[in-house]
C-alpha cells in the first residue's frame, strides 16, 4: 500500500481537544502523515460560556488548497472533514474533494456530517440538503450519529430495523461505508450502539456493537471516532 497521507479539514481549539486537536495525533499514531487545515481557530469548544477566535472563509480554504496545488503537494490518499458552520464553506469542501480526486481518483473521503445531536441542530438548517445531496454522494465513509442519520435520510429511527433502512438509503446515495458513531435505542440508557455497513463489489457487510456508556459527557469524542474509522 502507498504511504497514507491525510488532509484533515477541522476545527482547532487553543485549549482542549476537538476537531484537529482530537484527530491529528491519533492518526499520526496510526502511521498516517497528516496535513491539517484549521477551519476555525477558537479559544475553546463551543460548550463554554464564551468562544473567541477566527473562522476560515471558503476563499481562504480555496487559497490554501491552491498553494498546495501550485507546489504540486496536494496528493492525498485520504481526506477527513468534520464540523462545518456555513453553506459556502461546505460547498467549497465539495470543490476540494473533486480537486483532490483529479489528483488521486482513489482518494478516500471520510466525512463526519456534523449537524447536531439528540434532536438538537447546531449548524444552520441550510446545510442539511447540501450534505444529503452533494456531500454524502462524494463521501467514501460517513460517520453520522443517530440524529444526523435521521436528518440525512428523513427517517425517524426507533429501532434497529429503522437503522438498517436508513443505512440502505445512505448507500443508495452513493456512500460505500456508513458508520453510525453513537445510538441510544433500547431501554437501557447505559448502552451506546455503533452500527457499520460497507457495500463493495455488490457484497454487503454489516456489524453492530454495544458499548458500556460512562456517566461522563465528552466533547471531541466524535472527532476522535471519525479519525479511528480509517
Ligand atoms: N459517554 C460515553 N461513554 C463511552 N463512550 C463514549 C461516550 N460518549 C462517546 N463515546 C465514544 O465516542 C464515540 C463517538 O460518540 P459521540 O461523541 O457521541 O459521537 P458524535 O459526536 O458523532 O455524536 C462513541 O462511539 C463511543 O465510542
Ligand atoms: C469548535 C468545535 N469543533 C468540533 C466540535 C465537535 O465535538 P464532538 O467531537 O464532541 O462532536 C465541537 C463541539 N461542540 C466544537 O465546539
UniProtKB/TrEMBL annotation:
The keyword Kinase applies. GO terms for biological process: pyridoxal 5'-phosphate salvage. PANTHER family: PYRIDOXAL KINASE. CDD domains: pyridoxal_pyridoxamine_kinase (cd01173). It catalyses: pyridoxine + ATP = pyridoxine 5'-phosphate + ADP + H(+); pyridoxamine + ATP = pyridoxamine 5'-phosphate + ADP + H(+); pyridoxal + ATP = pyridoxal 5'-phosphate + ADP + H(+). It comes from Rhamnusium bicolor. Residues 91-229 form the Pyridoxamine kinase/Phosphomethylpyrimidine kinase domain. Pathway: Cofactor metabolism; pyridoxal 5'-phosphate salvage; pyridoxamine 5'-phosphate from pyridoxamine: step 1/1; Cofactor metabolism; pyridoxal 5'-phosphate salvage; pyridoxal 5'-phosphate from pyridoxal: step 1/1; Cofactor metabolism; pyridoxal 5'-phosphate salvage; pyridoxine 5'-phosphate from pyridoxine: step 1/1. It comes from the Eukaryota. Keywords: ATP-binding, Kinase, Nucleotide-binding, Transferase. Gene3D superfamilies: 3.40.1190.20. Belongs to the pyridoxine kinase family. The lineage of its organism: Eukaryota, Metazoa, Ecdysozoa, Arthropoda, Hexapoda. Pfam families: Phos_pyr_kin. GO terms for molecular function: ATP binding; pyridoxal kinase activity. Its EC number is 2.7.1.35. GO terms for cellular component: cytosol. InterPro entries: PM/HMP-P_kinase-1, PyrdxlKinase, Ribokinase-like. This is Pyridoxal kinase. Transmembrane segments: none annotated.
Amino acid at each position: 500500500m502507498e504511504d497514507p497521507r491525510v488532509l484533515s479539514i477541522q476545527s482547532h481549539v487553543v485549549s482542549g481537544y476537538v476537531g484537529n486537536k482530537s484527530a491529528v495525533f491519533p492518526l499520526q499514531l496510526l502511521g498516517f502523515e497528516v496535513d491539517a487545515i484549521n477551519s476555525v481557530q477558537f479559544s475553546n469548544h463551543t460548550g463554554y460560556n464564551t468562544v473567541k477566535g477566527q473562522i476560515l472563509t471558503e476563499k481562504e480554504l480555496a487559497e490554501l488548497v491552491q498553494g498546495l496545488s501550485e507546489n504540486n503537494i496536494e496528493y492525498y490518499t485520504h481526506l477527513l472533514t468534520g464540523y462545518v458552520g456555513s453553506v459556502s464553506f461546505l460547498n467549497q469542501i465539495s470543490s476540494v474533494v473533486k480537486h483532490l480526486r483529479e489528483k488521486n481518483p482513489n482518494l478516500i473521503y471520510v466525512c463526519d456530517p456534523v449537524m447536531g445531536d439528540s434532536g438538537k441542530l447546531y449548524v444552520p438548517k441550510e446545510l442539511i440538503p447540501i450534505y444529503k445531496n452533494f456531500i454524502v454522494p462524494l463521501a467514501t465513509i460517513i460517520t453520522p450519529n443517530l440524529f444526523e442519520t435521521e436528518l440525512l435520510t428523513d427517517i425517524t429511527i426507533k429501532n434497529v430495523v429503522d437503522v438498517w433502512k436508513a443505512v440502505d438509503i445512505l448507500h443508495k446515495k452513493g456512500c460505500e461505508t456508513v458508520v453510525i458513531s453513537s445510538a441510544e435505542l433500547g431501554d437501557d440508557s447505559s448502552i451506546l450502539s455503533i452500527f457499520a455497513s460497507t457495500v463493495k463489489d455488490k457484497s454487503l457487510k454489516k456489524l453492530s456493537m454495544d458499548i458500556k456508556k460512562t456517566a461522563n459527557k465528552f466533547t471531541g469524542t466524535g472527532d476522535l471516532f471519525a479519525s479511528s474509522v480509517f
